[in-house]
Amino acid sequence: MANKLWTFINKLDKSTEAGKVNWEQTAEDGVYQASFPDYSVRIFTREGVEGGSLDYVLQILDQGATVIEETSDPELARESDVGTQESFTRMRSLYKNARSRAMGTAQAIEKLMKSLNALDDDDNVPF
Questions:
Q1: Among the four 23, 76, 91, 108, which has the fewest Cβ within 10 Å?
Q2: Total structural domains in the chain?
Q3: How does DSSP assign 21-68, residue by residue?
């Protein structure tokens, strides 16, 4: 099961990065959710078992919002053919991509760039 979950996480991250998955903020700070027909996926961080570190956690929920599967980057590394660094890197990437989509980071950067470009255009106005 862990290897199937790993395959799903990879596909989800790549689809998120490509802008194909719509992530939203939840009522809980730092928890992001994507809805699909019949199921939803959440990703968030929590303090790791070994104090001081963060674990990235992915949950799959059914239509009634019951968690039917949960994994973290350390669990994936222990239970699948994936190494510790690889599972951490992929889960961190998924979290960052989900957060960026949910927060509208790309749109914010685009608007900021337009503002900066307008400032540059103002510099070219002869006085």
A1: 108
A2: 1
A3: S-EEE-SSTT-EEEEETTEEEEEEEEE-SSTT-EEEEEEEE-TT--EE
